[in-house]
Amino acid sequence: MKKLVLTVSLVSLLAHGAFAKDVHVTVVHMQQNPGELKLMDEMARTYEASHPGVKIDIRKFGDDYKTTLATSLQSNDPPSIIYSWGGGVLTDQVKAGLLRSVDGKISAETKAAAGTVGVDAFTRDGKLYGIAQNVSQVVFWYNKDLFKKSGVDPASMASWDGFLAGVAKLKEAGITPLAMGSKDKWPAAFFWDYLAIRLAGRSGMEAARDGKNGGFAGPEFVKAGEEFLRLSKLAPYQKGFEAAGYPSASGTFGDGKAAMILMGDWNYQESKTNSSSGKGLSDEQLGFFTFPAVASQKGTERDTLGGINGWIFSKAAPDEAIDFMAWYQKPENISQFAKAGYYIPINPKAADSLANPFLKQIAQNISASPYHAIFFDQSLGLSAGGAVNDVSAALTSEAISAKQAAQDVEDAMALDR
């Protein structure tokens, strides 16, 4: 999914017989799309040109982002600007004293551009810790050619039972229904997340967080696992899915070797980047639909799963780091990422620059959503979020019962309450 970090540290350099203080900004990330990386680098050079003494370097962070970040934040040289999904992980970081509040350092204009939802997403105990940048939604991307070949009508998948019937029909036609990256775990979690959101609804999710009605071991969450197992029992995933990470699964879909992938809007670009050709599916071959309605659900099919992502600052971050990120978020800068279709900016002025029809529709879906749930591995915090990822990967392999999966999440959540 989108994963990016900026770090800033101060060093002294000997120049012309005197010490000159420079600010070195290191961009550390997991983003793979060459076009976006090129644009990021261009932004860095532009900022440097108007800010003498500030140097920005771009390099890749480790693939295990969360573990690497947790270790780095507690080191003697922590990153200064951190790409964040907010949620419970942000709460944990604030509680641990690892972050710097940016109250009084962020202009009213910058906060207004993020909107109330964006500001709230990065506020804890009345203090602002970051700047929201982009929003995302997880959807079913599908290959129109493979659907046509199998005789499956996407409209028939508006219900979960219809979806499962479509999966079975795709298999009968000799087509792999779903690309899955179980090795990375979080791609599998989108299924459990969405099923829980549909079945429990917003009120049920909030009650579970508080430990009410059995918490995450309650009946709706057990049912989510049961429905997930109904899917896995159809053996819908590509060969070797348990050892495949997201890049591999995304490439499988981009190569036309699977009919669908449940993934965020970023997959539009990533499936091309990770395909064998580097081009992936054409827009004419590509479509998407939202997660189906589930029988007896307490939520609605308009409820969405995704993120409100942005930037937070470590306790070691200097003022220059905050200034750089505020500049980076200006609509004239962020709109360039929107035009290229790399993500959906939370800033409405920048989002108006979206040219990609798929991303435009997803932006409208999020805007119309009565409940936009944040990825569980972020919103529930490190312990419970990690448990969701673990049990979801196990459910793809039918290696755990629905009841045990729900209990494992509840046990982990209980540690953080």
UniProtKB/TrEMBL annotation:
| Signal peptide as annotated in the record | 1-20
Q: Which GO terms describe its cellular component?
A: periplasmic space
**Which InterPro entries would you find in this protein's record?**
Bact_solute-bd_prot1, SBP
- Which domain of life does the protein's organism represent? Bacteria
Coiled-coil intervals? none
Q: Where in the cell is it found?
A: Periplasm
Keywords per UniProt: Periplasm, Signal
Would the keyword Signal turn up in this protein's UniProt record?
yes
UniProt cross-references to Pfam families, sorted A to Z: SBP_bac_1
Report the sequence similarity comment from the record.
Answer: Belongs to the bacterial solute-binding protein 1 family.
Entry-linked PANTHER family: ARABINOSE-BINDING PROTEIN-RELATED, BLR3389 PROTEIN
Q: Can you name this protein?
A: Uncharacterized protein
Q: Which organism is it from?
A: Xaviernesmea oryzae
